[in-house]
Design brief:
CATH superfamily: Vaccinia Virus protein VP39
Helix content: 25-40%
Number of domains: 1
Mean pLDDT: 91
Number of strands: 9
Number of helices: 7
Distance between the termini: 34 Å
Low-confidence stretches: 230-234
Largest sheet: 7 strands, mixed
Length: 234
């Protein structure tokens, strides 16, 4: 079966701009979103739980006792599903203060306030010297100027967030650690592959999905490991 046609740049621009407007229009008290059968609360300016992270959440594997670092946590969905897989510690990061507020509320609501810490951080800025068994990331997919913190959840000016992620990630992984990374067919897929390999990682797609009514937009999950003997041990 042939692959579905890619959505045009104009189509994706309109769709993402509409989503950003919706994120900003949430009431001050917040809004509850159902995602994979669970409830998540989002405050204004927070990226909602959506199809983009589902291939990752449905297919990543956290061993009981693993430590997990979730970069770009948004409302905290990936971090919380890591908690459900019995991670011993989850540190969730986001640069957006609204996302921090939403993720903290959701961690408590799901009963993981003692396992999951939420910290405002631009990528790894506030991690310190800690290393993790697993890093998860749902970063903006597209190389496009982002005028504000809400747009930064979807657009990455000069692809700097993604570039810095791959330049820095290895120092926060334990030996044998692994990265689960979300992306899409309308994003800079080849650039992600290049950045991963350029910074000493192997990368393979482990899952993909598409909305039933919109087969053009597809979402991916990549498994990324440090190349060499430590990567093979994961």
């Amino acid at each position: 079966m042939p692959s579905p046609a890619l959505p045009t740049t104009q189509q994706v621009d309109r769709w993402q701009a509409m989503r950003q407007k919706a994120f900003k229009s949430v009431p001050e008290s917040g809004r509850t979103i159902t995602y994979l059968g669970k409830k998540f609360h989002v405050y204004p300016n927070t990226f909602w739980p959506f199809l983009d992270s589902q291939p990752l959440v449905r297919n990543f594997r956290i061993k009981p006792g693993d430590s997990v670092l979730d970069v770009g946590t948004g409302s905290g969905v990936i971090a919380i599903f890591a908690c459900y897989q019995r991670a011993s510690r989850v540190l969730a990061l986001d640069v957006n203060p609204a996302a921090i507020r939403s993720a903290r509320r959701n961690a408590e609501a799901h009963g993981f306030g003692d396992v999951m810490e939420v910290r405002r951080s631009d990528l790894f800025e506030k991690v310190g010297d800690e290393r993790f068994d697993v890093i998860t990331a749902n970063l903006p997919f597209r190389d496009k100027p982002a005028p504000d913190v809400v747009a930064r959840s979807q657009w990455d000016t000069d692809f700097q967030t993604n570039t810095h992620f791959f330049e820095q990630a290895a120092r926060y992984l334990k030996p044998g650690g692994r990265i689960y990374f979300a992306h899409s067919n309308f994003g800079a897929v080849e650039e992600v592959r290049r950045l991963a390999k350029q910074n000493g990682f192997s990368i393979r797609m482990m899952a993909r999905s598409a909305a039933e009514r919109d087969q053009e937009r597809q979402f991916f999950a990549f498994l990324i490991k440090p190349a060499g003997k430590h990567g093979r041990a994961a």
